Amino acid sequence: MAMTDSGAAFVEFDRVQKSYDGETLVVKDLNLQIAKGEFVTMLGPSGSGKTTCLMMLAGFETATHGEIRLGGVSINDIPPHKRGIGMVFQSYALFPHMTVGENLSFPLEVRGMGKSEREEKVKRALDMVQMGDFALRRPAQLSGGQQQRIALARALVFEPQVVLMDEPLGALDKQLREHMQFEIKHLHESLGITVVYVTHDQSEALTMSDRVAVFENGRIQQLAPPADLYERPENSFVAQFIGENNKLPGTVVALDGDNSKTEGKIATVKLEDGATCEALAVKCGGPGSKTLVSIRPERVSVSAEPGPNSTTAQVLELIYLGDHIRCRLNVHGNDEFVVKVPNAAGHKHLVVGETTQVTWDAEDARALDPL
Amino acid sequence: MVDATTNPTNTGLTTADGKPLKAALAHAQARSRRRAFLLVLPLLLFIVITFIVPIGQMLKRSVYNDGFTVQRNLTTGEKTPIMVNLAKWFDENPAGTEPDEAAFAALVEDLKQLKELRAAGQAGTRINYELSGSRSLFTQGARKAKKLQPPYKEALLELNPKWNDPKLWQVMRSASSNFTGTFFLAATDRTRDADGNIQSVEENRQIYLKLFWRTLKLSVLITVLTLILAYPIAHLLATLPLRYSNLLMIFVLLPFWTSLLVRTTSWMILLQSQGVLNDAMVAMGLISDGNRIQMMYNQTGTVIAMTHILLPFMVLPLYSVMRPINPSYVRAARSLGATSWTAFRRIYFPQTVPGIAAGGLLVFILAVGYYITPALVGGSDGTLISNLIAFHMQKSLNWSMAAALASLLLGGILILYWLYDRLVGIDNLKLG
């Protein structure tokens, strides 16, 4: 699904910038292409510019610079009601003075649709979210999850090509949220609509999306399918933001082969405690430059077998989590080094205070930019 | 549930030691209830003493006037019944009876007593409310009563032929009873003729209904004008970031902190024919010096000044309703395909109706009873019913008339309030 050819892009941000006060840029040079039928999530901490991007796409904010295209046509000057983009708000924004049926009927009404056709479409949309019996209720009489479904049905009832969702599950409890994630995903698959989804919840982004754009400080830090994002983060921010991560700061001392290109080579990194380890050079400079080695906790094994990155580790804390045991260790002077030991048959039983050996593959340690 | 099955005679639930649950609950809560009531008590007493009792007094006074039946000695506070003989004759003879010698004898007897008590002015004033020129008739009659000889009818008529006026006798008959509807009749421009039939007063003496109508009309106009002016302001206040909206809110509230009199007189300076506005228009050549626009001492002045003064009362309820309206409602409507006008009309406006209703009701009720501003800038054309009530309280000293007018005003507002409840629903009222 990954998109690079802008000719086939359905939604396209082209060098978009946005400033509210004329002094700072909230969105800096955004380039993003989304294919028809794709589910793209904008993920990032609050204040990273992701919601602003969504609002610009919906037409509630104007881009300070650059162009936003929908189906190849610039929509910079098209008012929101003519864009034909459905939107689901975090607060649901169900009109409180209308019944559920009237809420759904509203977008059809303003499009001048006849009554019988409206009723049929409203009924179909309500059935689609399993809320067929609720047409006469008021939004205030519904639970959060039910309101969420209605908001979804309302954004879909007029058959828009693009649906935007601004943290739609933020107000739901965990169980309902996970359930709704699957429902939204299934609706997306069965209707073939293009979805642009904003969230700050990484598990939500990883579960639902075809591709995730990680935002930070007004820029997309990485745009990749969920698996790539987790397994091959391109910089320290993404590695920190997505999933758990052990970080070991150090300096590159050598790269295998010639020094002209760093990416994809094995770098030797001198860590702060003086020891060296090997890591995959992803985003670090040549020898002498600072770097941050990032290793996922589940890629570290506690074992006696010596490897290229074997080192001693002191067990500081053990947390029993059922399927795995979370061990906090001191590795290379880092007190916060976490290793997940699967609770498999015959796993090594650690004791707090004991000194053991940990090891990881050089390919699993990624030398990234220093923070 | 155990009790209900084991003890069929006792159907209610009981506590562990057998006391009925309801009684136990009431006992348990009695103390906190008493405490709560004690906290409310000062305010309750205050309202009863300063609000409910005076209004009750006012309502009573509109139908009760003992000016023709009781005399109060102002120094001793002693009450003496007056006009007792005449009242007795009225009791014995039905309405419409030609006053005979006995009636005049009773009248003269009472006039003598009036002279003694120096109450002729008081009694005459009471009759004067309904038949002008009667006060002097009574003071003259009381002065000369001692010298009158029977037959009293001729003697009295010789003194003043007005004593034979059937209207006068009808008025005296109604005044000899403390309770009367006359003031309400007068307050609606009606009166009783000599036979006691209700009829409208002559066209050129009708003032109250006209004033009620004018008060209603101007109040509606002022309410509509404040709504038109306040709606955009309130919307701006509600949508601006807090630090700007607070500053603006101070400008809205500023008039509250300025004396009402100052605000009204500043309008006089602006609007009078030699005022700032007229001078400016003459200077710009928009109007000639001879054709200065009269904006003061008429309805225009009243409307302009009152609209300005009552504006905050419309802004505040509107603001308090608009502030919590999530901007995503309008955004949602827009994204669903509504133009900005449709989004306003179908989504935003219906949610502000409680504020409009509250502000409208507040401004209307205040406008209906407004006094100082119309008195100062209204002239003869722009005064309202409250000015007439004040006139009866302070100038003509006809408190019963003032009370009747005020009661009608109060009744009118209560009816509007009821209508409002039926149409909008009092639950929708939101003041802040």
Folded structure, characterized:
The complex is a heterodimer of chains A (371) and B (432). Chain A has 371 residues and is of the alpha+beta class. Chain A has helices spanning 50-58, 100-109, 115-128, 144-156, 174-191, 202-208, 226-231, 236-241, and strands at residues 11-19, 25-34, 39-43, 65-70, 73-74, 85-88, 162-166, 194-199, 211-216, 219-224, 246-255, 266-271, 276-281, 290-295, 301-302, 311-320, 324-331, 334-342, 355-359, 366-368. The longest helix of chain A has 18 residues, at 174-191. Chain A starts with 10 loop residues before the first strand and ends with a strand. Chain B is mostly helical. Chain B has three domains: 2-63, no CATH class; 70-205, no CATH class; 208-428, MetI-like (MetI-like fold, Orthogonal Bundle). In chain B, a hairpin with a 5-residue loop joins strand 3 (190-192) and strand 4 (198-200). The longest helix of chain B has 43 residues, at 21-63. Chain B is extended. The two termini of chain B are 46 Å apart. The interface between A and B is medium-sized, with 27 and 19 residues.
Keywords summarizing the entry:
heterodimer, A: 371 residues, alpha+beta, Rossmann fold, OB fold (Dihydrolipoamide Acetyltransferase, E2P), 2 domains, 6-stranded mixed beta sheet, 5-stranded mixed beta barrel, 20 strands, 22% helix, 33% strand, elongated, disordered N terminus, B: 432 residues, mainly alpha, MetI-like fold, 3 domains, two-stranded antiparallel sheet, two-stranded antiparallel ribbon, 4 strands
